[in-house]
Design brief:
Largest sheet: 10 strands, mixed
Oligomer: single chain
Distance between the termini: 39 Å
Shape: globular
Radius of gyration: 32 Å
Number of strands: 17
Helix content: 25-40%
Strand content: 5-15%
């Protein structure tokens, strides 16, 4: 039924639309696309990519056969485009749909070919549809449009197949002959595949140039992303139209359509030495003080001195057990049912007393440690396989003896000092709050020691008031036999060993920040800032002193004490003081971020995910600021997860990612000259399904609006490095501002 209506609609179009031929000049040959075909193709463009059909091009006919009403023509030089439009055997175009695809109920004959689904279309085919504005390129084919064509292509949210046809691109674009129009009515579904990359324009392209044939009412504009070629996944099927191309010709084509990078080039753009870092660029900090409702400071600020251990404040433990503060294990309200030896009934006993009594006992093996933890835990079926393997299979006998005789007793005493060190109630950083917590590194270590021994009450399940908070007790770290868990245990044990041997004397600040008023991106006149992009190095090493991006989960830390081991988890492992943010930080909202300043790095590492390995202890020499914090500022921003690749180009999704990045980068209270550069990379591009080039562009826009330069790390991807640099160069050379890109 739908097919019949579409065919009738196409015939009405053919009668109603006025007839105005538009020609190309290519050795007396004419190529035209009737408006009916373009419109029907656009209507059909909502099918999944798996149902798109291959369009095969036949030999063009005489100009007289193309007089079919208003049309769009592709202008090219010489016969190259026409030659590419012929099949090797000289047969003509076949646009017949596959049975079951396209319009239902339309019976077809002849060959049917199906294009395999593409999990990710090329970046050109996606970002183009977001920023479609044809270039003024005298050497490239030009699309001539009638006003009706322009209106038809511009009314859809995403530009579909017909819009890609109207983009022009280059001489290798898809051409439709008039013969094909005669054989197939305008209502026949047309699926146009684009596989050929678009050649980047030269510096002269932006100046435009006269074409021998121009089109009436053709808009004059510039396509933002026309300069760099799309990249197709290696396993994606390649569909080519036209004759077979020799390897030599294909190589020549690639040289003109891809950003060429010499193998020895490791970075592009501004030298990283010229980018701003803390503490050199930072302004003088005001005196540290506690501000009720805004900033909770857990130490005596009047006694804060370099090299001296901070003094907890207040002097005695203030017991608080409510819904707005962390429920501490040393609270008198932390009760646990135990069996009374006299009455043989269950009685509530202070859980902290039970914890203290249990952990003060000497344990010399992993089973004894397991029994101690389970003694004060309601859940008796925890799996300690990873901890057992670490103690018995990984550690040498001497190292295992040192673990139980020296290291673990030191961690126990650190945990049991909770009522002495963490005397002030710790507020929960709930959604919608703008609040900071500053505590000493010793207080952080005390809390992490309690997390190791799983002492935090009501945090072993998400079925209670902490359902919207990350896990904090380490019981998930101890389970399973994965080698990754073993490497995690090595890394965390390195932290406890380093701390017990030499106690650090600095502070760490945790700040939850929200963006109250989203940026009006469509009216921003902000130009892009400087960019350093490199395929070598890491954010934590080469981005020292910069604002370092944590590719976060909305539950900060992700799977750091579970099975996850990618960028965020690795950063939380080598800087374990970050882990304690999970104790009090509720899941991030779309307009929020978490900023951690002062976290120290204790470990080195190699590899990533399944290849991650602890690489030994690390001596952090990062200088401290006026509040005795390491000049390491890490911002946790969580990207959206996309199961459908094209979903991320939805305007609402783009705005969300721009606002999220801007929330993390912006400091309205600070002048731009005091802001360090942003050190970032492929944010939200792994299992979250983000396109690396799109995410790079969005982060550059957000950093520009925030007044920061960008150091972008591609983690070994040389082509991505070249593409990001090309994109940035194109925008900055033409002095294009944020609003133009977004619009």
């Amino acid at each position: 039924m739908a097919a019949r209506y579409c065919l009738r609609f196409a015939k009405l179009l053919e009668k109603v639309l006025h007839r105005k031929p538009v020609w190309t000049q290519s050795n007396n040959a004419s190529i035209a696309v009737p408006a009916q075909v373009v419109l029907m193709t656009a209507l059909m463009d909502f099918e999944p990519s798996a149902k798109r059909l291959r369009v095969e091009i036949g030999a063009p006919t005489s100009p007289s056969s193309s007089l079919r009403g208003p049309s769009s023509c592709i202008q090219s030089k010489g016969d190259d485009a026409l030659c590419r439009g012929r099949r090797p055997n000289g047969s003509e175009m076949d646009t017949r749909p596959k049975t079951g695809g396209g319009l239902r109920g339309v019976k077809t004959k002849g060959d049917r070919r199906r294009i395999n689904p593409r999990p990710q279309q090329s970046f050109r085919n996606t970002l183009y549809r977001w920023l479609v504005k044809p270039p003024q390129d005298p050497g490239a084919p030009r699309v001539c449009q009638t006003p009706q064509d322009v209106e038809m292509a511009g009314n859809s949210g995403f530009h579909g197949t017909s819009a890609r046809l109207l983009d022009g691109g280059n001489a290798e674009g898809v051409l439709l002959s008039a013969d094909a129009d005669e054989r197939h009515p305008a209502g026949s579904p047309q699926r146009l595949d684009e596989d050929e990359p678009v050649s980047p324009p030269s510096e002269d392209d932006s100046a435009g140039g006269e074409l021998t044939q121009t089109c009436e009412n053709t808009p004059k504009c510039t396509q933002i992303t026309h300069f760099f070629s799309g990249t197709t996944p290696p396993d994606a099927p390649v569909s080519r139209v036209g004759p077979e191309v020799s390897p030599e010709e294909r190589d020549a084509d690639e040289e003109t359509t891809s950003a060429v990078v010499e193998p020895e080039v490791a970075w592009l753009g501004t030298p990283i030495e010229e980018l701003k870092r803390r503490p050199e660029c930072a302004s003088v900090l005001p005196p540290l003080r506690d501000v009720p409702g805004r900033h909770t400071v857990m130490i005596r600020t009047d006694l804060l001195k370099r090299g001296r251990a901070p003094v907890p404040y207040p002097a005695t433990f203030k017991d608080t057990w409510d819904d707005v503060h962390v429920k501490m294990p040393c609270s008198s309200s932390n009760l646990f049912p135990v069996l009374d030896e006299v009455t043989h009934g269950l009685q509530n006993k202070s859980r902290w007393e039970l914890i203290t009594e249990t952990l003060n006992k000497t344990f010399s093996s992993q089973p004894q440690l397991k029994e101690a933890i389970l003694n004060y835990s309601a859940l008796k079926k925890w799996d300690f396989t990873a901890l057992r393997l670490y103690c018995t299979k990984v550690l040498e006998p001497d190292a295992a003896e040192h673990l139980f005789d020296s290291l673990l007793p030191g961690v126990v005493q650190l945990a049991l000092r909770a009522s002495e060190l963490c005397t002030k109630p710790i507020p929960l950083l709930k959604g919608g709050m703008d609040h900071s917590i500053t505590m000493s590194q010793e207080q952080v270590a005390c809390l992490l020691a309690n997390a190791f021994f799983c002492t935090f009450p009501r945090r072993n399940s998400r079925r209670n008031e902490y359902c919207n908070y990350p896990d904090i007790n380490f019981f998930r770290l101890f389970e399973g036999s994965s080698p990754m868990k073993i490497e995690k245990l090595k890394t965390l044990m390195c932290y406890f060993k380093s701390f017990t041997e030499q106690k650090p004397t600095g502070l760490v600040t945790f700040t939850r920040k929200s963006l109250d008023k989203p940026v009006n991106w469509k009216s921003s006149q902000t130009p892009l800032t400087r960019l350093h992009v490199t395929c070598e190095g890491t954010i934590e090493d080469d981005g020292c002193g910069m604002l370092q991006v944590d590719f976060a989960n909305r539950f900060v830390g992700g799977g750091v004490i579970g099975s996850g081991l990618v960028q965020e988890e690795i950063r939380f492992l080598i800087n374990p003081e970050l882990i304690i943010s999970r104790l009090f930080t509720e899941a991030l909202d779309p307009n929020e971020c978490l900023i951690i300043t002062g976290a120290q790095q204790y470990s080195k590492y190699t590899g990533y995910s399944h290849t991650y390995q602890w690489g030994g202890s690390h001596q952090d020499t990062t200088p401290r600021d006026g509040w005795q914090r390491r000049c390491t500022e890490i911002v946790a921003i969580d990207a959206l997860q996309f199961k459908n690749f094209l979903e991320q180009f939805n305007p609402d999704k783009l705005d969300r990612e721009l606002n999220k990045a801007y929330c993390g980068f912006a400091r309205p209270e600070e002048p731009s000259q005091n802001l360090a550069s942003v050190a970032t990379g492929n944010w939200g591009c792994g299992v979250f399904g983000g396109d690396a080039r799109l995410k790079a562009l969005l982060q550059m826009l957000a950093a520009a609006e925030a007044g920061r330069d960008v150091a972008y790390f591609t983690f070994g991807d040389i082509q991505l490095m070249a593409d990001v640099h090309e994109m940035h160069s194109f925008l900055t050379e033409r002095k294009i501002c944020v609003d133009f890109v977004v619009n």
